[in-house]
């Protein structure tokens, strides 16, 4: 798989960036448009490169301060017909499906971790659906709540923040989870409390819900399933397989557990509420722990270039030091 880098760079930096791109293994095509960038003023450089080599090149561009002085845009063409591209992919180490562009992962999870109105709306709707499925003993409604729930975004962002030591990302994701789940449970509890005098469900609804017993019975498999789901979810984000991510949503009971806590508290089933809260905690910890493990594994095998330890060179000469001169 090829990716395209669009680089806006100052004119005095363009030669160093161009040589850095040309020297990178896996580069198929490079185009240099002098004076094409108006804001910021400078040159435009486009690069077609194998995905396996993109992370190393981006790391070197960070050393050259391209993101600070200009910009880096990354896109993935749907189809590239080029013998040079085929040769570049063959020369690049590793496989494109296993390659990770860390800036892309951080940016994607960062967007998903924000406490927004849409995130709260989805979480409130999902928790309400879960509560309806619980009191009506409807597995279909509970599965629907799992699909609608947006909680994996902040959980993935929390894992990325822990691995990358990005404290702002950790705070943002913790805020989204810490505000979202309690708010969703409070609103769901209020709706359940109002539904009782309206006769929408009986007071013994939880006694008859055999299909939802798994929600408030945490056990060893609860943590195992959460860990497997967290690993699969992070792998799906890295490999851009959205269908696998939907399967992750269906496999874990974070939102149903939150809905069960709210309903059980309203009905005075405190033991079941405690069990469901434990289920929720186990799922959250399991998902984040497994996602962290996946990211650490990919960092270990991905031959990631650390900008603080490695400088881009061409022919044994440091481009950074040459520009400084």
Describe the protein's architecture and organization.
Keywords: Membrane, Transmembrane, Transmembrane helix. It comes from Paenarthrobacter nitroguajacolicus (Arthrobacter nitroguajacolicus). The chain crosses the membrane at residues 117-135, 141-163, 175-201, 221-238, 245-268, 280-301. This is DUF389 domain-containing protein. The chain is elongated. It folds into two domains: 2-99 and 305-324, Alpha-Beta Plaits, CATH 3.30.70.120; 104-301. It contains 14 helices and six strands. The two termini are 37 Å apart. Helix 6 (117-135) runs antiparallel to helix 7 and helix 8 crosses helix 13 (270-301). The strands form two sheets. Strands 2-3-1-4 form a four-stranded antiparallel beta sheet. The protein has a two-stranded antiparallel sheet with strand order 5-6. The relative contact order is 0.13. The protein is an alpha+beta fold and 325 residues long. 62% of the residues lie in helices and 11% in strands. Strand 2 and strand 3 form a beta hairpin.
């Amino acid at each position: 798989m090829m990716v395209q880098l669009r680089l806006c760079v100052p004119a005095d930096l363009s030669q160093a960036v161009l040589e850095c791109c040309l020297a990178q293994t896996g580069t198929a095509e490079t185009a240099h448009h002098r004076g094409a960038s108006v804001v910021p003023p400078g040159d435009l450089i486009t690069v077609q490169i194998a995905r396996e080599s993109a992370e190393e090149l981006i790391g070197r561009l960070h050393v050259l301060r391209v993101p600070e002085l200009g910009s880096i845009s990354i896109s993935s063409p749907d189809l590239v017909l080029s013998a040079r591209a085929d040769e570049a992919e063959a020369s690049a180490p590793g496989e494109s499906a296993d390659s990770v562009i860390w800036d892309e992962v951080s940016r994607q999870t960062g967007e998903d971790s924000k406490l927004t109105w849409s995130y709260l709306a989805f979480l409130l709707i999902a928790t309400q659906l879960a509560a309806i499925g619980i009191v009506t003993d409807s597995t279909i409604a509970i599965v629907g709540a799992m699909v609608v729930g947006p909680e994996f975004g902040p959980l993935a962002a929390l894992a990325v923040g822990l691995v990358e030591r990005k404290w702002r990302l950790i705070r943002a994701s913790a805020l989204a989870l810490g505000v979202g789940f309690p708010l969703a449970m409070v609103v769901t509890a209020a709706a359940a409390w109002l539904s009782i005098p309206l006769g929408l469900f009986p007071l013994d609804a939880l006694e008859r819900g055999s299909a939802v017993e798994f929600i408030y019975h945490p056990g060893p498999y609860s943590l195992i399933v959460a860990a497997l789901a967290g690993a699969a979810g992070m792998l799906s984000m890295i490999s851009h397989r959205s269908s696998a991510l939907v399967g992750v949503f269906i496999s874990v009971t974070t939102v149903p557990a939150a809905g069960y806590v709210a309903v059980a508290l309203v009905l005075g089933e405190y033991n079941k509420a405690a069990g469901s809260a434990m289920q929720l905690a186990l799922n959250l910890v399991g998902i984040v722990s497994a996602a962290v493990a996946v990211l650490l594994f990919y960092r270990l095998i991905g031959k990631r270039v650390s900008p603080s330890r490695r400088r881009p060179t061409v022919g044994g000469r440091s481009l950074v030091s040459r520009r400084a001169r």
